[in-house]
């Protein structure tokens, strides 16, 4: 049997089992013999955290554990990751009351006494199912900025939150910011910042301070859209004093017209007309955001808007519209609900926070 599928990486299996002996056995069987990438945890609460923050193809869980029953775990897993297959380990599948209670929720029941080869085969098909569902529900984020550091200032927290949910994240920076410092330095800084976020970087070479609203900007963004196939776009707001930012916004609206979710971030040059209606809590991402912005060391000395206390206090301010201590603010151009209306040039913006990286 094969433990890999699709992109060739081993299927990722999370085993939740409070009995260490059974846990070790499953880790050995699925990992060493099956070739899966297996993580074993004895704590259901830790398992939920793992599912929130990483990408998995299958969860294998025991029924009875201290702190949380298999039923409770299963219900919560369904809320966090509806398409992730969950297999429940049982002693006797057919005679267990718990099993009948779980019948509707679990994808499969694995009897602990089943022969190893049979267990591996079942896990293999569940992993394939999980992988297929994950790819079908693939989320790819493209953040588009005119200059190095624009995307990081406006949306690094949200991008880190997307990464935490296993989404692909790419950054497109249209110019190398030659007017703001040595070009080679800022290119290296952009790469470090993208690395800190876990994003792929597309660093283009349009002329700083004269980025056009038409071509070549539209063609440049379109090319990256073709490669990344984003489901979510973040870019500049139209409500911005800097012409490069406004033109990047306009070009992104054209190049990204097929994309279902489009949000505009705040730049230091945003005007008072920047009126966000989508807020992403970034309490867990603030540190990472500051780290990413810290990559632009050649600028932090000369640009006040890159100072950590300003980044932090801006996020602190926007948290009054979110449920945490720090937030990033976005104007909604389109969200998934209106995706089918995306042929319209300027659909009405949604009101209020929408489902997203919060
Ligand atoms: Zn800029």
Oligomer: single chain
Q: In which range does the helix fraction lie?
A: 25-40%
**Uncertain runs with pLDDT below 50, 5 residues or more?**
338-358
The CATH class assignment of the largest domain is Alpha Beta
Largest sheet: 7 strands, mixed
Number of helices: 12
Q: Your description of this structure?
A:
The chain has twelve helices and twelve strands. With 358 residues, it is α/β, with parallel strands linked by helices. It folds into two domains: 12-136, Rossmann fold (3-Layer(aba) Sandwich); 140-341, LmbE-like (Rossmann fold). The radius of gyration is 23 Å and the shape is elongated. Mean pLDDT is 85; it is low at 338-358. The structure holds zinc ion (ZN). The site of zinc ion has 7 residues, from helix 9.
Q: Secondary-structure map with pairings?
A:
Blueprint lengths: L11 E5 L3 H14 L3 E5 L2 H10 L4 E5 L7 H11 L5 E5 L6 H6 L5 E4 L4 H21 L3 E6 L4 H15 L3 E8 L7 H15 L2 E7 L10 H12 L3 E5 L6 H13 L5 E5 L12 E4 L4 H9 L2 H4 L7 H11 L8 E8 L24
Parallel strand pairs: 1-2, 1-3, 3-4, 4-5, 6-7, 6-9, 7-8, 9-10
Antiparallel strand pairs: 10-12, 11-12
Helix pairs in contact: 2-3, 6-10, 7-10, 8-9, 10-12
The site of zinc ion has 7 residues, from helix 9.
